[in-house]
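Technical note accompanying the year-one report. For the benefit of new consortium partners, we illustrate the data format agreed upon in the data management plan: each record pairs a sequence with a structure-token string. No post-processing was applied to the example shown here.
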Amino acid sequence: MDIEQNSVQESKELHKVASYYNSQSKLSEEAQQLLHGKELVTQGGQPQLLQQVPKQQEKVVKPITKYNFMNDGIWMKVLIERQNYPDIINTKLEDMKIEFHDEGFHFSAPQTDLISYDLVILRTARKIIPEKSKIYERKGKIYIALHKDKEDDWWQLKY
């Protein structure tokens, strides 16, 4: 019997804060506007319209798939020809980003705030020295110069 009384008491407490819609009673004009709104919150208190918030567009990352690489002594150079990516022909080198790691790099060239072209090499054939690696441009080509940990020939870029 104690358990039933507790359930009844809990139900009474719950009904003090909950409201019910009686389908036979006439709705006020404000309530009708709320019910016919596009987005309605009906949980916890008075129904109210949510503020219309435009969805934020997600960033689109396009991969850079056309590139060359070459050994140059202590350097391994990755070449990206701008003509292969017309959308970034006018992107300034200063606006491009590169992160070097011990075994790879992440290059990003923004076309707009929402679109960028990326080249990610997670693991190079051998270790590089990030602090000495650099990026520069010559004759319409973007050079990513990876400073090798030790001078030797790499026959491939990726591990």
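Partners are asked to follow this layout when depositing records. The longest strand covers residues 75-81.
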